[in-house]
Amino acid sequence: MHGPTRRVLIAGHLSLDAPLQGFAQNTESRHKLLRDATLAAFEHLIEGAIEQAVDAVVLNGKLFSTEPTLRSCATFRDGIEALIEEGVQVLWSVQESSELELLKRLRCLPRGLKILTDQQRQQPLLDLTGPTRDGLFNSIACVRLDEWPADATPSQNGIHSPLASDGQSVLQIGLTDQPIGHWLNGSNRIQRLQTACPIVISGGPHRRQTNRHEQAIYHSPGCLQCLDDSIHGSCSATLLQIDSHGEVDLQILETSIVRRESLELSLNANQTLDVTLAEAESVYLDLLADLEHSPTRLLSIRWQVRGPVEQIQRYSREELTTKFEKLFDETDQGIPVLHAVELVPLMSGEVVPSHEFSDEHLETQFLQQLGEGVSNWNEPQQQRQLVERLTAHLNRSTQLNLPGLLAGLNQHAVSHRAAELGVRSLSLSSKAG
Amino acid sequence: MKITDVKIDKFGVWQDLNLDVHGSGMTVIHGPNEAGKSTLMRFIRGVLYDFPHGQPNSRTAAERHRGWGGKLHVRDAGRAYELTRRINKDGQPFFRCQSGEQTLTESQFAAQLLPVDRDVFESVFTLGLKELRALSTLQTEQVSEYIYGSSLGMVGQRLLTAEQRTRKQASPFLGQAGDNEKTGRLFELSGQYDSVTAALSRSDEVMSRYQQSLLDCDRIEQQQRERKQRLAQMQQERTSLQYLQRVFNPWQRQQELKRELVRFEGLDHFPADGVRQLDELQRKQQTQERKLKLLRDQSRQVKQQLQQDRKHYRLRDHASGIRALIDLRSLVETAERHLAAVSADAAMLKAEVDEKMGLLGANWTIQKLDAVDTSPEAHMELVTAAKNYQNSLSRRARHRKKYQKVSDANHVRETKLNDQLKKLNINSLDLAIKQAQQRLRDLEQLGQLRIQESEFEQRIRSAQTLLEKYRQGSEFPWWASLMLTLFTLGGGGLFVAGLIQSVRTSWLIGAIFMFTGVMAGGLVAALRQHFETDDYHLHSNLEQEIHDCQQQLNKVRDQISRITGISYNLHAVYKNPASQRSKISETDLLRQANQKLHDLEELSRTQQRVLKTRKTLSVQRGKLPKFQSEVSRARQSWCELLKRLGLKETIRTNEAFQNWQLAVDAMQSVLKWKTAREDVQRQTELLAMFGEQMAVIAERMDMEGRANLSLTQILADWQQLLDQYDRASNNYSQNRERYRDLKRQTEIAETDLQSTDADIAQLLKLGRAKTAEEFRRNASHLQRSGEVRALLADISDQLDSLSREQPELAIVEEDLEAFNATQTQERMELIGMEIEDLQRDLANSHEELGRLRQTLTQLENDTTALDLQVQQQRIVEQTRGELADWLAADYAGETLAGMTKLFEQRFQPETLARASHYLNKLTCGRYEQVRTPFGARDLYVHQSNGKKHSASELSDGTREQLFLAIRLALVDILAEDNIELPMVLDDICVNFDQQRTEAAVETILEFAEQRQVLFFTCHLHLAELFRSHGIEPTWLPAQNEYEPHRLAG
């Protein structure tokens, strides 16, 4: 790094007060933790910004993922004002104008917050002290790149177009709502916009992502706290360290309080339960090493246990879950751990003709049939029939969104569960026989 | 078992009935209604399985008391049985089963019929329309086993159980099917969700309450601002009035004092504490005069002392040089000690060098030693060369040793081999092995030859025994020969008698006699001819065989003799018990031959090894010069290296290394000695330089007679002199300093006295007085003026303080001059009341604002809605999880059901497969298949177009055709288990249409080709139909022709 360095903390989606998905069991005792997880992540962002002595914080994502609550608005206001009182510049690139309107209406718009909207597309962020020479930047500004008017010039509407920025004295951080892929293969105009901004921050995806393309850095900080199990591992904000040459260094500031992880176990033929549990412990301990300095207060692990049919049929999901809950109920730091097990029976690769029924190949045959049937399950007609079946059974109206629930099911997980149930039933039937 | 005959003594309407039944195939019995067809069917069933109580339909007690019963003639497994069952007049049952001379008890007979018991027979074999139509007759355990479950198998059972288990896992989500009261997790969860959603909708008012509270806050804050403004105005006015009140009195007093002060003008510059100053200055003047006198006396005394202390000045010029030398005293002492020590070391090292040079040899000098290269590189080179030299020596020694060892071993092995060959008298080992192998093959063949020998011997013995036997039994017994002779004689006699009779009485009788006689003679001749010819052929054959076997036996024995070398004695073989020993010796021979072959092969291998070792030794011998030249080269390079390094040449590496080590040690000692010598020289030079410097200083100070003292001792003397000089110099300096100090104090005292005189004059001048008394008088006037000024100052301070307290208030003289105390007090009271009102209102609004802000904070921290959302989310997650589980179980169940269906299609019970064939025929191809789902006792028929119908959905006729097909199939299946019983059908086609009736007739006829069927019908067209197919019905007369009162049976 050369020259004076500025530290800018970039945060993506805050999703304040959005309920966390995927926690169906044992949540009464952890109700508050799950309820306040997103706020806690936001508070961790504020504390982190103060501890790291950042110069500025840039918010480029949605504040709310669900219906906003008063508490979340007030927390946002208090947190941002605390940062501003500490002398930190805070800039918010508004993705949803309704969020801005709501904050104004509820008088929760923090004083001193810099705002980027479609009307106000550029805001200075920081000055870089030191002599201005050729090839050096002396200030940092943020620019909204989305829906930039095609004929925008510096004289129009007071907008200072990044295309016409005054030489190289201003380092422009481009902010966009679009995913990174949109910019990597964009049109010429998009490419010109990118050229003016060597750093492009995407507030689109919830997953953290970084790409480098033609001297530019494309980074998506993701969300502060994942809401569902689509993201495994930590969620975070990103600390940009920028010097007057425009050289950028990216660091991660973990913020997620509830962390989800996916671990895989492979069962070998004739492997005993003790060996399986020992392997699980090894994988689990590797994971705990990563958690040593993280703010995690609840860990949710999804175990995917794969193995040949004859191994998988010896266990049930419930048995293994109970075992894991007994063995790994909490970490050394006292973080409670939740476990969910998915058993995946693997076929041997041997094809058994569907009309041949032999006792020893019945499970394999079942998996084959199941695999052939899986492709049809997602068809709209099938979904419709299922909804009709459920509705007919209920025999009354409900606000429970059954079609949505059915459509949102992870078909892989369902098919794995079906495979587990079928194989295990066949196994038990064999023992009963 | 097939019925061949029905005999009814008395049963129902039948009496003394004797009905013939076809032993196999179809029997059609036609009779009008009430002809007794059903009675006949019940009779057959009754004889086979006992009559139930109340049978038959006896209309009167008299009939019942006459008893009933009859017989069935049946054939089973080629045996005929007569079955008699009767109920006598006393109601006692009677049963008999007779098969020739064998009689079976009732239980034995019943056991023969198993597993078809009475129920199975009734439901499958004897069918009336009623039994045919009833599905329940096919649902008994035994029958069901055949129809539904006989081929379920392990796989089917597993599939069925697994499907049921999986379905059971899915059931908690939707609850049990058919529940009137809805249950299941979906029902519960949706209910919970709806409740939470309703609660959540009620909590939406939080936002509106918050906004309303914000508006209220704004309103109250506006009111507060207005009240505060008014309050400030009132407080300002009251403060102004209070200020005026407070200022008025001091202002009035100030005016009075100002007027008094005017009288004391002119003493403005009189010193503030002039009298005290004057007193002090006069006291000070007296003290300074006394002090000045004392100082002047002391100065004189000190000056005299200084004059006396000037003697030490002689050493002052050289003190610094001497001190510098004395400072080096410790170094000089150290240098002198060091010189003594290194001189001793140098002497010892020189002795050590001389000793080590002596160890190296006589010719070694230090110059030669310096020429030896003892660097690490040289040492490494020496080590490498020594290692190479040692390695080459080792390699040569190893090679020689190895060669010698192999050579010795090979020589020993070769000697042993030659000894053994000589001992065995073998010239060519290969030839000997070939001979041994040939010998072994011969001995192996010997076993075969022995067996052949035994075989031929056995054949000869058998043929001889047979020949002997035929020889003994080929002739007629004596009584047969006698009979034949008598027969011949009788024939001749009869012939003669016949001739006589034909002449005498009748030719016919004569001819008979003659013919009988010819026949007897012919018979005897034929018998003899026949038996005697056979014996001849047999004899010749046996003798020929004995001859052939003997020839073969001789050949075999020749071969055995050749192999064993023992001539064969036939008699000895048969009679000498030593034959067993001979066999034993053959085994020994075989073993010996084997052993010999093995030994020869071993010798051959040894010979090969000796040859191979010779070749190896030859190669090794060729390598020896190479190792020798390696050693020479290594030795040469080793010697050259020693020479180059300056060491003594030797071929012993140990000695070379010892020399190296001695040279290194000597060099180190020489190095140390040289270093010590240089050190001695350096120290000596250093001390000499120091001594020269001291001599120069001593000369300057005129100090002589010290040449016999060491430098250290001289320095010690000088130190004492210097100490004395220091003490004198210090005293002189102290006195001189004291004198200077006294002079300075005297000057100061004189200056102070002059200053005090000037101060007194100045003070009198300021007090406008010429004398001290005048000055004191002016001072009393000034005191009063000061008091007035102080009072004025206080009042001014008070007024200033008041003005600072209220800087914003400005009071002009006119206001004070126009001030009215009463009016001001009244106005202030009015203002106070208004201020109190305003403050009360403000406090109230503050409280209200606080409440509102608290409400806002509460609303901001309110998590009710959020709790509900989290709860709602949890329900959704639970539903999602359970829905996924249900769906998974459903998918698994569906997949298993699909497999079960496939399995059903592929592995239907045999009974239903056959029933499908019959149903297809009975329904003229409309229905192709009969199926039953696994785990259920339901029947489904499949049309050719793929449609499926349950049995209950079929028309009566089709249903009856289905049940008939199943029964025909069942009879087939039972027959394959060797349970064959006649099938009795009683007018079962009454609901069939014409086409299917014809199809039924054809089907039954086809069925009857394998089984026995008794078909009863009252329909003429049916009987005619059978007749058209070649089956002549048995026509029963109508019973009412001779018994008009009988009702249907």
Give a verbal description of the structure:
Chain A is an alpha/beta fold. Chain A is built from 13 helices and 15 strands. In chain A, 35% of the residues lie in helices and 22% in strands. In chain A, strand 13, helix 7 and strand 14 form a beta-alpha-beta unit. The longest helix of chain A has 22 residues. The termini of chain A are far apart. Chain B is α/β, with parallel strands linked by helices and 1049 residues long. The chains are: A alpha/beta (433), B alpha/beta (1049). Chains A and B meet through helix 1, helix 3, helix 10, helix 11 and helix 12 of A and helix 7, helix 8, helix 9, helix 24 and helix 25 of B.
Tag the structure with descriptive keywords.
heterodimer, A: alpha/beta, six-stranded mixed sheet, elongated, B: 1049 residues
Q: Determine Rg of chain A (CA atoms, Å).
A: 26 Å
Beta content of chain A: 15-25%
Which consecutive residue ranges of chain B, at least 5 long each, have pLDDT under 50? 1042-1049
Helix content of chain B: over 70%
Percent helix of chain A, as a range, is: 25-40%
Order of helices and strands of chain A: EHHEHEHEEEEHHEEEEEEHEHHEHHHH
In terms of quaternary structure, what is this?
heterodimer
Taking strands numbered 1, 2, ... along the chain, how are they ordered across the largest sheet of chain A? 4-3-2-1-11-12
Could you give the count of β-strands of chain A? 15
Mean pLDDT of chain B: 81
Strand-pairing-aware structural class of chain B: alpha/beta
